[in-house]
Design brief:
Order of helices and strands: HEEEEEHHEHHEEEEHEHHEHEEEEEEEEE
CATH superfamily of the largest domain: Zn peptidases
Number of strands: 21
Helix content: 25-40%
Largest sheet: 13 strands, mixed
Low-confidence stretches: none
Distance between the termini: 27 Å
Shape: globular
Bound molecules: zinc ion
Number of helices: 9
Radius of gyration: 21 Å
Mean pLDDT: 95
Length: about 375
């Protein structure tokens, strides 16, 4: 985190990421070396630095690590311009795609590594992976986290959820390994809360620690930056993958500028975010998969993203291909739920969640690493 004005000054005076070096008051462009390709070139990552005339914090902003989640790219392009550089204190380091291979093929994963790239950043590996060599994306992720650690004060990674989904921000729980880390964890958690609130999107907490580590979310971009580098780091979901929702992009650009105001990088009052669905007031939420269908069949959704469903309420009808009900004919939530998004398509299988929802969260926001 930012230690002092002098440190900020030194950092922004010599800000270099890959081949891109910041210059006061303007945009500069370059690349971060990516994976070598067998066909003779390399999949370099584009880097843009927007540097203000005054020193200040450095915000890292990345997008499109999941190649079919494209809306973050126009958000980066719209945010970074000469007007921003003229008003900015500090700098924004932006990488509009972390996955050029996936962007070209409109696929979540790059074709040269079958792992989810957003589960490859440095952090405890699964026992089954211990001893195996790092994969193509794991090597890139390790270098990227090093560059973030060398230069960033804050970090935001832009994603998209299912085709029918609302924009929201995910806030990971801050985990600590020992008592010495614990007080710092509380301060980091408070900073994360304030940063998320400044963004202006609905905020959902990430899964509780055991599920978080089991899903390797501590090895996501922002998970690793938060847990390993102890940087305030957020994941923003911009609605639909594959397509670009213009309203979500506009709201994201406003949200990013609001975070910069909160961080002291821009002046003036927070701007009003373009209308996006908001959850019911007064509940702290965490994300959860579900509900689950009782059998194999076809879904007939009767709610959409942004709907609030009371415990026992119906999310979708469940029918066979002839239109006859399966079981009682419905998929219901067992607890009050705000619908973040419904899964793409209409196929129902046992064990496959049909939606992603936000439910009331009573788990602590700082916690010990699971054993
Ligand atoms: Zn994603």
């Amino acid at each position: 985190m930012l230690a002092s004005r002098e440190e900020a000054h030194l950092r922004t005076a010599a800000l270099t990421v890959g081949t891109c070096s910041g210059e006061p008051g303007r945009l500069t462009y370059g690349i971060f070396p990516g994976a070598d390709l067998p066909t003779g070139s390399a999949d370099a990552l584009p880097v843009i630095i927007a540097q203000g005339k005054e020193p200040g914090p450095v915000l890292w902003l990345t997008a499109n690590i999941h190649g079919n989640e494209v809306a973050g790219i126009p958000a980066v392009h719209r945010l970074l311009n000469d007007e921003l550089c003229g008003a900015l204190r500090g700098a924004v380091v932006a990488l509009p795609t972390l996955n050029p291979a996936g962007l070209r093929t409109n696929k979540r994963r790059p074709y040269n590594d079958d792992r989810d790239p957003n589960r490859t950043f440095p952090g405890a590996r699964k026992a089954a992976d211990e001893g195996s060599e790092l994969t193509v994306y794991e090597r890139l992720a390790s270098r990227l986290l090093g560059a973030i650690g060398d230069t960033a004060d804050y970090y935001i990674d832009l994603h998209c959820a299912s085709i029918l989904s609302v924009p929201f921000v995910i806030r990971d729980r801050v985990l600590y390994r020992n008592e010495a880390q614990r007080s710092g964890a509380a301060a980091l958690s408070d900073a994360l809360d304030a940063m998320a609130a400044a963004f202006g999107f609905p905020v959902v907490a990430e899964y509780p620690p055991s599920a978080y580590v089991a899903k390797e979310l501590h090895r996501s971009t922002t998970g690793a930056a938060l847990q390993e580098l102890r940087l305030p780091s957020l994941t923003a979901e911009l609605g639909a993958h594959t397509i670009v929702d213009e309203q979500a992009v506009a709201a994201t650009v406003g949200g990013l500028r609001n975070v910069m105001r909160w961080a002291g990088m821009l002046s003036g009052p927070a701007e009003k975010i373009a209308a996006i669905p908001q959850p019911p007031h007064g509940r702290r939420l965490r994300r959860q998969e579900g509900p689950y269908p009782a059998g194999t069949g076809l879904l007939d959704f009767c709610v959409g993203p942004g709907s609030f469903v009371k415990a026992g309420g119906v999310v979708a009808g469940l029918k066979d291909i002839w239109g006859r009900p399966i079981g009682d004919g419905f998929v219901k939530v067992s607890t009050d739920a705000w619908i973040l998004g419904i899964e793409d398509g209409m196929l129902a299988y046992p064990g496959a969640p049909i939606a992603h929802i936000a439910v009331e969260d009573d788990a602590p926001l700082i916690d010990a690493w699971p054993a």
